[in-house]
Design goal:
Length: 173
């Protein structure tokens, strides 16, 4: 599928409510379950998404629009949520993510991005040359990746409990 900002927005608008419906008011036994060492629970994923709203998508879009490939993006701390989320409940994080995404989408709208800007280049500190369309497409895929991750982590909590049905559940493989 070719990038289209309108289509991308259809996913970006839905992510907060999708996570909210799935996770709000879950007990910590669900919110903090992981797939094992060095994996993230749903709580940590939501914190990561909040940090991305602050430090990744819109700031990097602005860098592309203002500087092109003449200025590299600031490196993104993929683990900032561990400190930033400390002491907050999952419900607080869900509210924070919803508000942060609304601000991001308003900022995106204010940038007045037109199709002629999609090919404008930027410079990722690790990946090198990227385009605005690639950044915005990645935002959508990143949301979907973490929605899958949250679903998978929650499902895997019942890996042993499903018994022989495990063979039919791709999410548990």
């Amino acid at each position: 599928m070719q990038f289209d900002l309108g289509s991308a927005l259809e996913i970006l608008r839905r992510t907060p409510s999708t996570l909210d419906r799935l996770l709000r008011d879950l007990p910590d036994t669900w919110a903090r379950v992981t797939e094992g060492p060095d994996t993230w629970c749903a709580y940590e994923v939501v914190g990561h998404l909040i940090h991305g709203e602050r430090a990744d998508w819109i700031p990097r879009a602005r860098v592309i629009l203002e500087h092109g490939a003449g200025k590299a993006f600031e490196p993104f701390d993929r683990f900032a949520q561990f400190e930033e989320s400390r002491g907050k409940s999952l419900n607080q994080l869900l509210d924070e993510f919803t508000a942060a995404r609304a601000r991001s989408l308003a900022a995106l709208d204010a940038l007045k991005i037109t199709p002629d800007l999609w090919s404008k280049g930027g410079l990722h500190p690790d990946l090198g040359a990227v385009t605005l369309a690639q950044l915005l497409s990645t935002w959508v895929a990143h949301d979907l990746d973490h929605l899958v991750q949250v679903s998978r982590v929650l499902a895997k909590a019942y890996t042993d409990e499903v018994g022989p049905w495990r063979q039919y559940l791709r999410v548990l493989k």
